[in-house]
Amino acid sequence: MKIEIRGLDVIYKNGNHAVKNINLTIAEGMFGLLGPNGAGKSSLMKVLVALMKPSSGEVLVDGENIQKNRKKLRSYLGYLPQDFRFFTRLKTWEFLDYAGSLAGIKNRKQRLSIVDELLDKVGLLEARDRKANKLSGGMKRRLGIAQALIGDPRIIVVDEPTTGLDPDERIRFRNILSDLSQHDVTIILSTHIVGDISSTCQGMALLNMGEMVFSGSPDELVKQAEGHVFNLRLTQEEYDRIKDTYHIISSIPSDIGWDAQVVADDVSGFDSQEIEPNLEHAYVYYMEHKINGTNINVQVK
Amino acid sequence: MISIHNIRTVAHYEAKTLRRSWLFRLFSFGALFILSIMNIGIFSPVGDEDWSFLAIPSSLPLFNLYIINIAQALIVIFLASDFLKRDKKLDTNEVLYTRPMSNMEYIFGKSLGILRLFLGVNILILIICLIINIISKQASIDAAAYIEYIFIITIPTLIFSLGFAYILMSIIRNQAITFLLLLGLAALDMFYLYNRMNSFFDYMLFGFPVFKSNITGFSNLDLILAQRIMYTALGLVFIFATILIFKRLPQSRTHRIISSVSLIIFLAITAFTAYYFLDDYYRTQNLKTSITETNRKYESSDFLKVTEADIEIDYSKRSITALATLNCVNNTGRPLSESPFSLNPGLAVRKIDVNGSPASFTGDGHIIIVDLGKALEPDSSLSISFTYEGLVEEAYCYPWHTEDIKKDPFTIGPVRVEKRQAIQKDNFLLLTPETHWYPVAGLNFYPGNPARILIDFTYYTLKVARNNKLVAVSQGVRSSDNDYWYFKNEVPLTGISLIEGNYISDTITVDSTGFIAHYYRGHDYFRKDLNELSDTLGNLISGIMTELETNFSTEYPFNSLSLVEVPVYFHSIERKNTQTRAEVQPSLILLPEKLATINDAGFHGTIKRQKRRMERNNEVITDRELQVRAFNNFVRNTFITSSGFRFNRGNTSMTPGRYLLGPSFYFYKNNFYSDEYPVINAVFETHLQKVETPQRGFQRMLLGGLSENDRANTILKDHSLKEILALNPSTDTTRLILTLKGDYLFNLLRAEAGMEEFNNWFSSYLEKKKFRNVSIDEFNSDLGERFGFDLKSYLDQWYNGKGQPGFLFTDIIVNEIVVGNRTRYKVSFTASNPEKTPGIFNVGFRTGRPGQGGGRGMGGNVSITISASGRGSMSIGMEGRGMQTNDVEKIVKLEANQAKRISVILDAQPRGMFVNTLFSINNPGELQFPLMDLMQGKTDDNTEGEIILDKIPLMEEENEIIVDNEDPGFRIYQETSSGKLKEWLNIRRDNGNDYREMFIWWAPEYWQKTVESIYYGKYVKSAVYTRAGSGERYISWTASIPEPGYYDVYTFIGKRGGQRMMMGRGGEGRNVMQDLHFSVEHDDGSEEMTVNWENAENGWNHLGSYYLSPDTARVIMTNQSEGRTVTGDAVKWVRQNTLK
């Protein structure tokens, strides 16, 4: 399904302008919404799932304004909110059954088999009869995605799904999502963790302070950082000098001092070697260079 | 359109979540457990089988739902607001909010979930109740009530509580504040609002009566429905409002429209039902006021006397059509051209004929003024016919009365029952004379003189149209044909009642009096329970009637006595001008259905319990004997001696029972009247319709507070009887005062005429004058003729005079004397009345050897009998009330400022003397003097009687100074504090200034005044007591010392002989009173003295000898003590004769 966001603004009662004039088109497949904390991602998500009214602008799904037909939107929506804690007094399967029933699966037998299928898919079948307070953080999140998937939603909105997960769980979660994206669904994933926007994202947008600063494919973002990522060999004294002014992405101790990866426009005067940027480099480059408008020059004094 | 699937889904899972919460589990398991125990304990054959419940089967489900409802009204507050709190954690619920369901479906689902769960618990409890109901052989089953009460009690309360919790939570969005508000509302209902405005605010049915009679169903179905629909609708208004303001973007315009429209509809229903309910309330209030005001206009009118009344009545389709023909005589002494009659304002007069010709009349509210044509000369008579129709307006009855269910509730167990005075249902009719369902020449209330009463003795005939297969019951001989029931009375009545219902009747004739029971089919449970009595019933009744006739010294004046069962909610109100209750009519008693509210009527249970006890004690008793006892107990405790005991703010009072047969022996038979002393009939009545007060002595002996007599004396201290009555005191107070003044008056008559002589003359006088109105002038002249005694010369002082006598008793001694070859005992004492008003007191003795209970040296004439039923019952002599004066040995009259030496010779050794000072300043007015220690050896002087002494003996010796706690020299030092909150809530702090009963296990943290004859006092035998402590509160006695010298200082300690006042918990059975700490101030400073209460003398206890200069002397006592309570009374300084 094609989602078009037109001139969207979200202004809270306290005057906080959370989302500013966003225009965006999201096609089927996985779409990543990246931005630091407080960039307005969650507000945008809430508008997308009709939990919140935009202050202005509109969201169209296949050409239809979702605010005017919330029921229809809700009938093909799966949503996993950022802070998903579920009712402590329900068992895993019961919660899924509840969600499934509300999603419109009226036949109990059919619903129960779907529930078990989904539990299996997210690896929770063994925890079927466990209550929420007996689930780990990752398991809860997986249950969250399972409930978002129940009832064959055409649009799945996932808000910050990997926060607080250990690496294993995070990988597992990403795999589930990328599996899903193989089907005819639109998955919108919001995150402040660059690693979540994997190569499976056909499209992405970068949000900062409520504004959309980039939209396109992850490759396009990476491309923009080409020629700006370097590996520097630094002495201890050089390292100390530049570490506060540079975005050092990683640093490893070396025989002369440090080997450091930096994002910069100019690294003349250093023992440098340009390297191919990845999404993380691109994100840093973009946030620092393009948005904040700082010229990142590293010069030898 | 509305997805039932969604609602059910939400309901299912919300219920599941709720069911797993600890609070709900605690509540439901707790409720099930407690109520199961209660059901078994109260209703089941292994339990108590409480008759008041079992008699009316609907009370079983009512009891259960009433209890659970109060609990769940509170629990639902927690659960509902908890629900919404969860919804506030938006992220959790967002996964649900993004589902395709409307807000209406969601809120409905939630509500349904909660309702379903609570209903489940309610139904489970009802099932348990039903099982017990089925097992119980005593109760029938009212299946409909099980369902009706769910709709009346449970559902409205739940819906309202839910809705209110929702809306508050939605608006305030703060769980703590919501809790506080909701709990506040619940508390407000339970402590303040439940009784206001006919329980309009009582959403949880804490005090609103919903009792269902087995005869007629609900007493007030329309008001019940109005109130319950109102709260249901208001709850729904809140729920729909919650839907509309719910913090989730709506998805269905249709549902919003439905919600808005529903909100408006339910708001309209709320408003309509509230209006309906309040309209009834205000209409009743206004009607009562207007009746009183109308009465005020006519209270000094001249009324005709009705000698015969012929009433024809047709009650069908809930409407009365009647023709009443009254034969009236003018005995006003003046010619009358018009005459007022009262008729219930619900009945409209269509036509009036005087002597067969149409007459004009005017109506003024319930007053109908009939134009008699030409003036009716004195002592001539005429006949007036009234044609009228309508329905009786119940609020007309007892217009001065405003129901205060807090003070005087009518309850069965915890459940309140409405008090109704008339019943007009499709299948039942009950009209008592109180309703004025036929024209009455007089008023139902004289506002200017509430104690006044006008009584006509009228020969009634009644013709009742047969309708609806109902059976008519009334007074007189009944006959019938196809169209009518006829009742003819050969004895004049003060009023006639009509009851129509599905009655069956049984008659047993004993000593030519017919005893007729009118009851509903299946309500004759007593046949089975008392099956052994069938052949002895006549003898039993005969015995009881003989006993009654002996008791009242007069014969039962009617040919029959009908016992009619009527719906339990028929309940009269006490009147000020008579003690006679509407439950008892001439020759007819209206009893509660299946005798439900009569304790001793649960024959099966009583017999069962007694049998068990007998078996435990290895006693053998036949079933027949058990049944005889049960029957006798029932009759005695219901019709002869019943009274209700009330304890209010430290004072006890007894209300006469509702079914006492007394009125048949005076009020319905004799009448004394006086324009000058309008209370005279009420005074005669209170005295002659003797009301025994079991427990009174018991209460007084144990606790020592103000008896009814004492209270009446306190009230009359500074006012005349006339003044007090003009202040329109409460019914209770009026009764107290009239009883006291009646006792005084009759004791005066007996003192003048001699006890035996007066009693004999008076009982035959009453018989001679039965069914006649006797003026006080006629009585006075008859009395004068017989005894040469002019009552009227006393009546003025009695009615209009102020001031009270005060009696002092000194020098009591007991001597043995030998008369013939028998040893007898002579008691001598000095009685004086130093006051300006003459008075009388009577004296009685307790004789016999000290046996069981002998330890109670001060027991007076209290005899303790623990009846076989296990309830301790106590009786105290009537001290001159009623026609029988067995307990009174002597009545003594003392003029103002007079003293007498009185001697009485007794056959047996007296153990105690008791004195009732009747109308006097003495407090307590009932004094008890132990005589065991006052034996003075033998004497030859066997004279008895009274000798007037030259002067009044002194209470204090010349060298004595006594300061009592009532004297100016006594002072209490205590801090009085009152919290702000208490001030705001208008909670009055007790300050100890009123006399209160002493509660020995608990003493207040201030000095509380209490009276009892064991204490020191001139007239007022009082003391102060407080909780023991470390000496933070103290009292002092101060006296001025006239001359220097050595003084012996004493303190008075009043002890009930041998009575141990136990200290509980760790007190090892010690007395609550232990060490008392005094500080005696003298010339060289002060001396600390400790008196051990247990070892102290009963009376004056020496605190030492001290040298005192002419100045003020002081003794201080603190509340320092190891015991639980300290008591302070009086201090005495006695000057020593020789200087040391």
What order do the helices and strands come in, and which of them pair?
The complex is a heterodimer of chains A (301) and B (1140).
Chain A: E1 3-11, E2 17-26, E3 29-34, H1 41-48, E4 56-61, E5 64-65, H2 70-75, E6 77-80, H3 92-102, H4 108-121, H5 137-149, E7 155-159, H6 167-180, E8 186-191, E9 201-208, E10 211-216, H7 218-224, E11 229-235, H8 236-242, E12 247-253, E13 257-263, E14 271-274, H9 279-291
Parallel strand pairs in A: 3-8, 3-9, 6-7, 7-8
Antiparallel strand pairs in A: 1-2, 1-4, 4-5, 9-10, 11-13, 11-14, 12-13
Helix pairs in contact in A: 3-4, 3-5, 4-5, 7-9
Chain B: H1 4-19, H2 22-43, H3 51-54, H4 59-88, H5 90-97, H6 103-135, H7 143-172, H8 175-193, E1 212-213, E2 217-218, H9 221-245, H10 253-298, E3 305-316, E4 319-329, E5 336-342, E6 347-354, E7 357-358, E8 361-364, E9 367-376, E10 381-390, E11 411-412, E12 415-416, E13 423-425, E14 428-431, E15 459-465, E16 471-473, E17 477-480, E18 484-488, E19 498-501, E20 503-510, E21 513-520, H11 525-529, H12 537-552, E22 560-566, E23 584-585, E24 588-592, H13 603-616, H14 623-640, E25 643-648, E26 651-656, H15 662-665, E27 670-673, H16 680-688, H17 696-703, H18 708-715, H19 721-726, H20 731-753, H21 755-768, E28 772-775, H22 776-787, H23 792-800, E29 808-819, E30 822-833, E31 839-847, E32 863-866, E33 872-875, E34 890-894, E35 898-906, E36 910-916, E37 926-930, E38 935-938, E39 945-948, E40 960-964, E41 970-973, H24 980-984, E42 1008-1011, E43 1022-1027, E44 1034-1040, E45 1045-1053, E46 1075-1082, E47 1085-1092, E48 1099-1108, E49 1112-1118, E50 1125-1128, E51 1130-1135
Parallel strand pairs in B: 3-15, 21-22, 22-24, 27-28, 29-38
Antiparallel strand pairs in B: 1-2, 3-4, 4-10, 5-9, 6-7, 6-10, 8-9, 11-12, 13-14, 14-19, 15-18, 16-19, 17-18, 20-21, 23-24, 25-26, 29-30, 30-35, 31-34, 31-36, 32-33, 35-39, 36-37, 40-51, 41-44, 42-43, 43-50, 44-49, 45-48, 45-51, 46-47, 46-49
Helix pairs in contact in B: 1-6, 2-4, 2-6, 4-6, 4-7, 4-8, 6-7, 6-9, 7-8, 7-9, 9-10, 13-14, 16-20, 18-20, 20-21
